[in-house]
Amino acid sequence: MQAINIFLTDRLGEEISDFVHGDMRYAFGRLYPEGPRRLVEGPVCAFVDWVMEDLSGLEMCRRLRADTRTADAHITIVLEEDDPDDKRRALRAGADDYMVGPIDRTAVLDRVMALQAGGGHARVTEQLQVGQLLIDAAALQARWAGEPLTLRPNEFRLLRFFAQNPDRVLTRAELIEALGKQEPPIDERTVDVWIGRLRRALRAKGAGDRVRTVRSLGYAYDSH
């Protein structure tokens, strides 16, 4: 089943359930100032509020364009009112589209499905490079210094999430949530098994100890 990621800066992104239509799953999530907090697999549609608590919608839009996970996202600015000047400023900041809020699940899905019907798919970032690590999303393969890594699906998705969040300490709970493994719930120690396999695969290709244990907190992927 294919998936489209729909991220909202509004808290609604945490509350809306995913929607399945045919062979397509529309996966909702919350968009934070630092970006998504879960693994980004597939095209991204982002709905950014014009006014936010921590920063402006314009700044959020610029951050999305600078983030490798969301650089190719289809960004819709959600305006508070139908103001022509605000529309122009949103488009100059990198937004693709705009709509007037407030928004709800139906309005968002209608907008995304209309985008699909019109052939305006958000693009997928096919490759992600972090130092000598290359993640090829289309081929579902990871390479170190040009050599393919032998990884099981969970380890590949885990490494992809680390590559999307290099040098950031991630707890076991965050890793489970990022990979969508909350239901049915799994033991946090299962993450340690994934990490062990991932480390062995990286070492086998000469990458050394890239995945660092942060005592009492979790793990981090060292990009340097």
Question: Can you describe this structure?
Answer:
The protein is of the alpha/beta class and 224 residues long. 32% of the residues lie in helices and 26% in strands. It has 7 helices and 13 strands. Strands 1, 2, 3, 4, 5, 6 and 7 form a 7-stranded mixed beta sheet that branches. α5 packs across α7. The relative contact order is 0.12.
Distance between the termini: 35 Å
| Mean pLDDT reading | 87
Note the beta-strand portion: 25-35%
Give the SSE string: EHEEEEHEHEHEEEEHHHEE
Gyration radius from CA atoms, angstroms:
18 Å
Question: Main sheet, how many strands, which sense, barrel?
Answer: 7 strands, mixed
What general form does the structure show?
A: elongated
Q: What structural category arises from helix and sheet content?
A: alpha/beta
Count of DSSP H/I helices? 7
Low-confidence runs of at least 5 consecutive residues:
none
The proportion of residues forming helix, as a percent range, comes to 25-40%
